Amino acid sequence: MRPIGFLFLALFIGYTAEAQPFINEVRQFSKSDSLQTPPIHPILFIGSSSFTYWKDVQDYFPGRTILNRAFGGSSLTHLVLYANEVIFRYKPKQIVIYCGENDLAGSDQVTADTVVARFTTLFLMIREKLPKTPIVYLSMKPSPSRRKYLPAMQEGNRNIRSFLAQQSNTAFLDVYSAMLSADGTIRPEIFTADSLHMNKKGYALWQPLLEPLLRL
User: Fold this and answer.
1) Nearest-CA neighbor of 45 among 95, 79, 82, 84?
2) What residues make up the domain containing 108?
3) Would you say residue 69 lies in a domain?
4) What is the per-residue pLDDT across 114-166, written as a single tens digit (0 to 9) for each?
5) CB-based contacts of 209: which residues, under 8 Å, 6+ apart?
6) CATH number of the domain that 150 lies in?
7) Measured between alpha carbons, how far is 115 from 130 in angstroms, rounded to an integer?
């Protein structure tokens, strides 16, 4: 396994103890864990608000033990920053990731290559600590409010898919294509009024695509 210290440092120069994004959300996870012991070796969902708002995700996958630790408008950099708090402490049997969309929307300086590099850093961190844990990555979705980023999302999705195809114990789930109509336009009925987050129809679309990839 190649060292990841340099990649990690390059991503996080500028973060300080006084300025930690989403620290309150992460601390809330610890508080929740103190009130109710989290399941042992769960299927761990991590990432941004597309998972955060899937509050009833357990109901979609009966027979699986799922723990949702997605938070806010997080980017891949935040998953790396809080990996100990939202990933490693739970010793998951499987990790399911939805993240990358906010990376592109957060700065005009972020490109598809940036997203792939950030994902690679996260992946290598997980592999270093949890070498045998299966990882599923859901492609960035085509949010109507983020049309200008769609070409970069498609490029990022392609390159992450290619990267994962070279790794063991991984799966790439293309939800992007499933969220388009036959004519290639985005299906508006699966989004909430903000044209960014999904409604129940959107999650119902994801469910049968994801279920075969989840461990029992």
Assistant:
1) 95
2) 40-213
3) yes
4) 999 999 999 999 999 999 999 999 999 999 999 999 999 999 999 999 999 99
5) 173, 175, 178
6) 3.40.50.1110
7) 22
For residues 203 and 86, give the distance between their C-alpha atoms in angstroms, rounded to a whole number.
Answer: 22
Is a pLDDT exceeding 80 seen at residue 5?
no
Quote the strand ranges of 15-154, DSSP E: 43-47, 66-68, 94-98, 135-138
Instruction: Please state the rounded mean pLDDT for residues 167-181.
Output: 98
Distance between CA atoms of residues 19 and 215, nearest Å? 37
In a domain, 26, yes or no: no
Task: Tell me the β-bridge partners of 171.
Answer: 136
What does the pLDDT average to over 9-28?
A: 68
> Pairing between strand 66-68 and 43-47?
parallel
CB 80 within 8 A of CB 12: yes
The verdict on residue 49 lying in a domain is yes
Q: How far apart (Å, rounded) are the C-alpha atoms in residues 87 and 127?
A: 12
Q: How many domains does the chain have?
A: 1
> How much is the pTM?
0.91
